[in-house]
Amino acid sequence: MTTSLPRPATPPHPQRITLADFHDAARDVLPAPAYDYLQGGAADERTVRWNAEAYERLALLPPVLTGTTDVDTRCTLYGTELPAPVLLAPTASHGLFHPDAEAATVRGAAAGGALTTVSTFSTLTLEEIGAAATGPWWFQLYVQRDRALTEDLVRRARAAGATACVVTVDTPVTGLRERDLRNGFALPSHRMPANLAGHGAEPGRNAADPAHRGIHDPRIDPAVGWSDLEWLRSISGLPVLAKGIVRPDDARRAAEFGIGVWMSNHGGRNLDTAIAPLVTLPAVAEAVAGRVPVLIDGGIRRGTDVVKALALGADAVAIGRPYVWSLAAGGAEGVTAALSALHREIELALALLGAPDLAALTPDLVRPPW
Ligand SMILES: Cc1cc2nc3c(=O)[nH]c(=O)nc-3n(C[C@H](O)[C@H](O)[C@H](O)COP(=O)(O)O)c2cc1C
Ligand SMILES: CCCCC(=O)C(=O)O
Questions:
Q1: 132-159: pLDDT as tens digits
Q2: What does the record give as the active site (predicted)?
């Protein structure tokens, strides 16, 4: 079945015309520990910087006199048509950032034409989010040591309306989040992940143990393997994607299993100095060879970043921190405005590249500038 979303209608806030503007607005309203949890990465945050630099270091080579008059930014993923190739990456605990939490996110995303990926660690329950959703959404799964709980989460997500299951494979343990350690950050007791309530020790409760500080959750199974992905596909009846792939050999294996490839280094929050996914994207796209969708996240802040990723072989991109900035700054309307701004930038980039649609974004359009 093909579903479609309306094109974004809400004009950006006059003073907030870029994703970076939403960052500044969020920094002004968020308590420092919540801002640091959102903004931070692992250790020296080199990978956080590399993610952004990977896009900065690629230059565009626009052809001229192409006769392109209209641009079409539509993209279809697993039968769902989106007005632009942009998803919201899963981020935990939206209640830290706005009182309406994920309910605001899913509403704002649908109005802005993006598909939301809901984290296992959402503040609201999957049922509450499903009831609030006015557009398509996927479920991000952290496989739990307790496989019955894992199965139940997937079943609940599907019953609540999720149309794909994104399994995060890059977090056997949580990275060294030094901002959080310095802040003694732990989730407030009224913002615990509702989906896991009643299922063992809450994250961050054992503040004396550094490994359990911040938002590390001991219920996550560090021993997830490829067979678990196949098992999930069989029990969920949903398309399954693996989130956190950066290597072409892993991407090839996922494609052979029919598992979608979501390239990511977790926004630089796990293994510092892990490579920026954009660097390995061409090799990953070659290894996958169109068998499954290839998504990418990490450091995407501009429409030109989106077109670079698509030119190098991604089918769509996801943003993490930027939409959380917009949620913090303006709730559902903020999310819609940020997505509208990004969509406009994508349209403009296509027009200036003479690319009538996303299929016209080819590797010859990008080059290292030196
Ligand atoms: C505050 C925050 C919470 C996150 N929570 C999750 C999560 O629950 N599950 C997950 O798979 N990834 C999580 N991520 C990683 C994002 O899905 C994504 O990979 C990353 O943010 C992309 O990089 P960007 O923030 O530079 O766009 C989180 C990221 C942030 C910033
Ligand atoms: C155990 C990790 C929880 C959320 C997360 O993925 C993140 O903060 O990056």
A1: 999 999 999 999 999 999 999 999 999 9
A2: 266
Active-site residue identified among 13, 216, 266, 343: 266
Pocket test for ligand 2, best of 45, 185, 215 (most atoms within 8 A of CB): 215
Nearest residue (CA) to ligand 2, atom 1: 216
CA angle, residues 44, 49, 50, in degrees to nearest 5: 110
Number of domains into which the chain is organized: 1
320 part of a folded domain: yes
The region of weakest confidence among 46-55, 180-189, 276-285 is 180-189
CA of 122 to the centre of ligand 2 (A): 11
212 is catalytic: no
Q: How many CB atoms lie within 10 A of CB 197?
A: 9
CA 321 centroid distance within chain = 9
Helix axes 101-111, 321-353, angle to 10 degrees: 10
Which numbered ligand comes closest to the C-alpha of 187?
Answer: 2
User: Mapped to the 3 state alphabet, what secondary structure does 102-147 carry?
Assistant: HHHHHHHHHHCCCEEEECCCCCCCHHHHHHHCCCCEEEEECCECCH
Q: The domain that contains 311 carries what CATH number?
A: 3.20.20.70
Q: Residues with Cβ < 8 Å from 349, sequence gap 6 or more?
A: 60, 303, 304, 306, 307
